Amino acid sequence: MKILVANVGSTSYKCRLIDMNTETDLAKGGIEKVGSDNAIISYYKGNNEIVKDLIKPIKNHQDAVQLMIDFFVDKENGVIKSIKEIDGVGFKTIQAGDKNGSVLLTKEVTDAMESYASLAPAHNPPYLKCIYYFQEIMPDIPLVGVFEPGFHTEIPEYARVFGVPYEWYEKYQVKKYGYHGASFRYVTQEVSKLLKINLNKVKMIICHLGGSSSICAFKDGKSIDVSMSFTPQSGLIQSARVGDIDPFVFPYIMEKKNITLDEALKEASSNGGLVGISGVGKDMREIWDAVDLGNKRAKLAIDKFVYDIIRYIGSYYILLGGLDILAFSGGIGLNDIRLRKIIIDKIKFIGIDIDDTKNNERTEGIKTKPESKIKVIALNTNEEIVVARETARIIKEKK
After folding, report:
1. In angstroms, rounded to a whole number, what is the distance separating the alpha carbons of residues 9 and 130?
2. pTM for the complete prediction?
3. How far apart are CA 359 and CA 251, in angstroms?
4. Which residues pair with 163 in a beta bridge?
5. Residue 203 pairs with which residues in a beta bridge?
6. What is the Cα–Cα distance from 386 to 395, expressed in whole angstroms?
7. Of 23, 42, 81, 151, which residue is 20 to 30 A from 348 by alpha carbon distance?
8. In angstroms, rounded to a whole number, what is the distance separating the alpha carbons of residues 58 and 185?
């Protein structure tokens, strides 16, 4: 079975054509700056880079999709003779309200994506453009949405509901959804393989830390809570997102700055979080460099990020009734040794005996000593393979 996985951003398109028999890439590619005259294009056949940083106009996401398909069927560097060899297309979709899960992209589901576009304005609209185009050019091939909140659908209702008028919850579906579902699914599966454990008998906290960050409490085979809530803007501070905040900050700042709600939200989502506090940038390496030079704002940004992470770990430790495994994933979670050490040192009293030699390695694996009560594990994440697996599963179930 060959599955094409599409990962769509507001100005980007990335895809992988995967042979599900071996779970290896037949080909993959990416386009940055979609919608411009200087889009940046890359393409790999297997692991061999065929096109690197090619610059050409890509006016929209439909053109991006078509260009990548043209690469896949190219006589010289393609990997398939026809798009009919593709058995299904999986999308790392974000939000469809009560349709969240791993589902065939029927009209009912795409209509739900349309209605929830305001919750994921950078994702739902471009995803829909790509989905509609795939439906046009590949009408007989199943399309599957693997929605980010799908991993969190079993969170108890009392953890989902907000203290808002009940009409908002009942009629308008204002509640906690949670995101990063593909990453959390991958990490739990890999932890199970690595430790040879039954996920139905484990208490785990997963810290997905990267440009976008969230933390999940996982118990007895399911997510019981997650830091991201109604939208991906909530929870921890992130690279440019404010995280948890009193909603009445917005009318206050609108009055003080004489700006609209849209302007306030744009400021908060593009100049908040780590970049807003540090004044340095989004990249943790740049922030750490500034910290080492004595930059107080950069130090404050790190301290706030660590505080948020520990705050969630602490609350989830209580909710879980203890902890067996603390997992770190994402670019920061796997590679930022310094941050991981600070976090662990602050919570080691709960039963973590870190192995400093292992923790100082930017590699996957267990970072604690054998006698540690709680195991700390660092893992890369692979959201695309989860999307491919879920897509293949849905297709097989529908046959």
Report:
1. 11
2. 0.92
3. 44
4. none
5. 219
6. 14
7. 151
8. 33
- Per-residue pLDDT reduced to its tens digit, 41-92: 999 999 999 999 999 999 999 999 999 999 999 999 999 999 999 999 999 9
Residue where the block lists tokens 């694996």: 365
**Cβ contacts of 364 within 8 Å, gap of 6 or more:** 334, 378, 379, 380
How far apart are the C-alpha atoms of 123 and 240, rounded to whole Å?
16
**Which amino acid is it at 341?**
K
Q: How many CB atoms lie within 10 A of CB 140?
A: 5
Residue 104, pLDDT score? 96
Amino acid of residue 228: M
C-alpha to C-alpha distances, 31 to 24, 92, 283, nearest whole angstrom: 21, 16, 21
Supply the pLDDT for residue 98.
87
Using one digit for the tens of pLDDT, what is the confidence trace for 294-325? 999 999 999 999 999 999 999 999 999 999 99
DSSP result, 118-155: GGSTTTHHHHHHHHHHHHHH-TTS-EEEE-GGGGGTTS
- List b or e across 74-97, with b for residues whose CB sees 16 or more CB atoms inside 10 angstroms: eeeebbbeeeeebbbbbbbbbbbb
Burial (CB count <10 Å: 0-12, 13-18, 19+), residue 323: buried
Tens of pLDDT, residues 205-249: 999 999 899 999 999 999 999 999 999 899 999 999 999 999 999
What sign for the dihedral angle of Cα 381, 386, 388, 389? positive
- What's the length of the chain? 399
CA angle 223, 225, 228 (to 5 degrees): 110
Instruction: Give the chain's mean pLDDT.
Output: 95
Q: What is the DSSP letter of 368?
A: B
Helices (DSSP H) in the chain: which residue ranges?
61-72, 107-115, 124-137, 157-160, 166-172, 181-195, 249-257, 261-270, 273-278, 284-292, 296-320, 330-335, 337-347, 356-359, 383-398
d(C-alpha 335, C-alpha 367), whole Å: 13
Q: What are phi and psi of 245, to 5 degrees?
A: -155, 145
Residue 52: CA atoms inside 13 Å, Cβ hemisphere, count?
A: 4
Identify which of 270, 343, 331 has the alpha carbon closest to the alpha carbon of residue 305. 343
Helices and strands (DSSP H and E) totals, the chain: 15, 14
What are residue 224's phi and psi, to 5 degrees?
-110, -15
